[in-house]
Amino acid sequence: MDTNKNVCRKRIVDLENMAYCRCPRVYWPVCAKNNITYMNYCIMDCLDQDIRRYGPCIHYRRSGDSSDGFLGDK
């Protein structure tokens, strides 16, 4: 079972590896299949992730359910 701290860690971009990406530092968010919002497509691609959708990942919690979900998940 994931603790809240572990769940949050899963959603953090790898800043150490991002430093090696030659990408513009503009905010045009994209949601990757790993359910992390990246600053822009170039950074997401540089970190070898696949796109889920353009725009930030939208996290929600169902009433009475302790699991996280993401809009657009099937």
Automatic annotation (TrEMBL):
Top-level lineage group: Eukaryota
Pfam family, one: Kazal_1
Ranges of residues in domain Kazal-like: 11-59
Protein's name according to its UniProt entry: Kazal-like domain-containing protein
Source organism of the structure: Loxostege sticticalis
